[in-house]
Specification:
Layout (H helix, E strand, L loop, with lengths): L4 H15 L3 H12 L3 H16 L1 H12 L11 H13 L4 H16 L4 H12 L3 H11 L4 H4 L4 H10 L3 H10 L7 E3 L14 E3 L2 H7 L3 E2 L2 E3 L2 H12 L8 E4 L6 H9 L6 E6 L5 H7 L6 E5 L14 E4 L15 H4 L2 H18 L5 E6 L11 E6 L2 E6 L3
Parallel strand pairs: 5-6, 5-8, 6-7, 8-9
Antiparallel strand pairs: 1-2, 1-4, 3-4, 9-10, 10-11
């Protein structure tokens, strides 16, 4: 069976679901192994990420088109119908061609028995464009923002607690359903510089699949907010006699790489800790160009560094992740309110452990905002006293 880009998108989507992977990390890794064209890579990325972002909206459309609930549709056909519906609504290819392509995908992946059924559903989906489907969803599911904007209801309620302005809340929900702005870190002069970091520029689509989260020739994909925290720490009040730095929650390694890159020949050793063993391989790959970074797997709440002293400490503690669901498209469907509480408690424990060390420290925390990737606050602390506190807005 010939595996088209659409076939690969369904396979990757199912793999992410079955193994509970991070889509923004898993998709580029799969694409590197498949060695497809840039056009096919872009199609797969858009299909997987777009389907995750619009999942609840798409499910409502499928149920309307099928005149039945998802529970009454063959389980392995549902991801195919979602992606087919997504491309019919948001894609640029002629709708007749798309219906035919996705019916063929259903036949190849699920068998001949679904061919007529999938054809009927996808043809009904193709009868309306995005605006028309919005009007239909708004009428059939009046007042249900979770379906209209494709966000779990509990997440919308969390946002409402923080954002009193209804128009700003709606803008946030809309932005979360668009592809994120990605940044490329480089030592060269940048043409489209971020307000947060002098090293960041907007990445081309081809960079996303070529580099993913890895490092190549001093280039890597990294959002500007993460980069700015590391850049601040590496360049503020530079001392020539420093030897040891600490990155407390280092995975996937981008911030440690930025620090090492900024002080490449300064004789500084960076200890990069993270609690998750399965992330070590990713960190080793991302930091392979830097011999002065030591990756260690340990729980930072237990102060695994012992009596070791550090001149500078970067702590990007685990957060709720609700400010990053634009980039981590699948996370909105996998997080729970209980997990949010656990993450908050964990962050406090890590802060308590790191605060006992006397050193320069940069703390980063993400605020909920329609353009969350550019609204992080940064606090630089020395000996318990705040030295710098910056906010782009």
């Amino acid at each position: 069976m010939k595996k088209t880009a659409r076939t690969q998108a369904v396979i990757i989507f199912n793999e992410i679901e079955e193994k509970s992977l991070y889509a923004n990390i898993a998709v580029p890794r799969f694409l590197r192994s498949l060695k497809m064209s840039d056009g096919d890579n872009s199609r797969v990325t858009d299909l997987v990420m777009g389907t995750y972002r619009w999942k609840l909206f798409l499910d409502a459309i499928i149920e309307i088109a099928a005149a039945r609930s998802l529970e009454k549709i063959q389980a392995d056909l549902i991801p195919i119908l979602r992606m087919g519906a997504y491309e019919l609504i948001f894609g640029k290819t002629t709708k007749e061609i798309l219906v035919s392509e996705w019916v063929n995908e259903a036949f190849r992946l699920c068998g001949n028995q679904v061919k007529g059924f999938s054809n009927a559903i996808l043809r009904r989906v193709s009868e309306r464009d995005f605006v028309q489907w919005q009007e239909k969803i708004s009428k059939d599911f009046e007042g249900q923002d979770d379906i209209f904007y494709s966000h779990p209801e509990w997440i919308i309620k969390k946002f409402e607690e923080l954002i009193s302005d209804r128009s700003e809340l709606i803008e946030l929900l809309k932005v979360n359903n668009t592809p994120p702005v990605n940044w490329r870190v480089t030592k060269n002069k940048v043409e489209n510089q971020s307000a947060l970091s002098p090293l960041a520029e907007v990445a081309r689509a081809s960079d996303l699949t070529k580099l993913a989260s890895g490092v190549s020739n001093n280039l890597r994909i990294q959002d500007a907010a993460s980069q700015a925290a590391a850049y601040l720490l590496a360049n503020f009040d530079v001392k020539t006699n420093e030897t040891n730095w600490l990155d407390v929650c280092a995975a996937p390694g981008g911030k440690a790489a930025t620090m090492a890159q900024e002080r490449l020949n300064a004789g500084i050793k960076i200890s990069a800790f993270d609690v998750h063993p399965h992330k070590k391989e990713l960190m080793d790959s991302n930091l392979k160009n830097f011999s002065n970074i030591e990756v260690q797997i340990a729980d930072s709440r237990l102060k695994p560094w012992g009596d070791q002293k550090f001149d500078r400490i970067l702590l990007d503690a685990p957060c709720t992740g609700l400010g990053a669901i634009r980039r981590r498209a699948e996370s909105r469907w996998k997080k729970t309110p209980v997990q949010i509480k656990e993450l908050t408690d964990t962050a406090k424990e890590i802060f308590d452990a790191a605060s006992k060390l006397q050193a320069w420290r940069v703390y980063r925390y993400r605020r909920v905002h329609p353009f969350c990737e550019e609204t992080d606050d940064f606090v630089v602390v020395w000996g318990g006293k705040t030295i710098i506190q910056t906010s782009p807005h």
